[in-house]
From TrEMBL:
Residues 22-264 form the Nucleoside phosphorylase domain. Pathway: Purine metabolism; purine nucleoside salvage. The purine nucleoside phosphorylases catalyze the phosphorolytic breakdown of the N-glycosidic bond in the beta-(deoxy)ribonucleoside molecules, with the formation of the corresponding free purine bases and pentose-1-phosphate. GO terms for biological process: nucleoside metabolic process. This is Purine nucleoside phosphorylase. It comes from Methylorubrum extorquens (strain ATCC 14718 / DSM 1338 / JCM 2805 / NCIMB 9133 / AM1). It comes from the Bacteria. CDD domains: PNP-EcPNPII_like (cd09009).
């Protein structure tokens, strides 16, 4: 039995069969997006075999189905990070379940530190690409040749165009940036942030990249949005703390919800 099979039957029984126009993963402090979803049916991760028990304060741990802009969506409120257990594949079962239930595509959200002083706390950035600085990969141990996942267009150009159009319609600036994944959980040193900048990163964070890799492995197109909660360590004014991450993410959550609603409204049928 594939690891996700055990999750599917209880999810179907609980009314979670798709199709879905979009699955969404909410990042630290970004659970407010859930409030924008109407006709909600919710289930604790704890009730779903193989789903992780999120341990980071600021994270939920519930799966929701419902409608956003009238379109069927599946929302993961809370994720497990590689830094909680060392397992970069912690979100494999949830994402495989989303795919199996009929989620056509994936929107990942996260809180991140910005290397660009002009893109400060509260701003949203669309991921154009990423750099994996963690030394981890969620597909290590995957035996099939499918593990050699192309990552050339990891963040789907068509979905990025829809995000840009939705941002324009919503009146939100949405620059594109490169996200560097550090495993965490300690924040970066200023020297590490300088290194990431030299390598081409605009953002630093502790999530998203393993989920992008897993989703591409599963054949789902991916889009991702960072909510900048702070300037990264060593950038003038940057001194990241988890409390600040949660507080700023919560304030920017309303913008993220508006953007996500505009985005899903523009997507083709599930
Ligand atoms: N670094 C890594 N992860 C983060 C940061 C940061 O500065 N801010 C929010 N998540």
């Amino acid at each position: 039995m594939a690891p996700d099979d055990a999750a599917i039957a209880p999810l179907r029984a609980a009314g979670f069969a798709g199709p879905y126009a979009l699955a969404i993963v909410t990042g630290t402090g970004l659970g407010a997006l859930v409030e924008a979803v109407t006709d909600r049916v919710s289930l604790d991760y704890a009730a779903i075999p193989g789903f992780p028990a999120p341990g980071v304060s600021g994270h939920g741990g519930r799966l929701h189905r419902g409608r956003l802009s009238g379109r069927p969506v599946l929302v993961f409120e809370g994720r497990t990070h590689a830094y909680e257990t060392g397992n970069a594949a912690a979100m494999r079962v949830p994402l495989a379940a989303a795919r199996a239930l009929g989620a056509a595509r994936l929107l990942l959200t996260n809180a991140a530190g910005s290397l660009r002083p002009e893109i400060g706390p509260g701003r949203l950035v669309m991921l154009a690409d990423h750099i994996n600085l963690s030394g981890l990969n969620p597909l290590i141990g995957e035996p099939s040749d499918a593990r050699f996942v192309p990552m050339t267009e990891a963040y789907d150009p068509g979905l990025r165009a829809h995000l840009s159009a939705a941002a324009e319609e919503t009146g939100l600036p949405l620059p594109a940036g490169v996200y560097a994944w550090f495993s965490g959980p300690s924040f970066e040193t200023p020297a590490e942030v300088r290194m990431a900048g030299i390598l081409g990163a605009d953002l630093v964070g502790m999530s998203t990249v393993p989920e992008t890799i897993l989703a591409r492995f599963l054949g789902m197109p991916v889009a991702a949005i960072s909510v900048v909660t702070n300037l990264a360590a060593g950038i003038a004014g940057g001194d990241p703390h988890h409390a600040e991450t949660k507080a700023v993410a919560a304030r920017a959550g309303a913008d993220l919800a508006r953007l996500a609603a505009g985005f899903v409204g523009r997507l083709p049928e599930a």
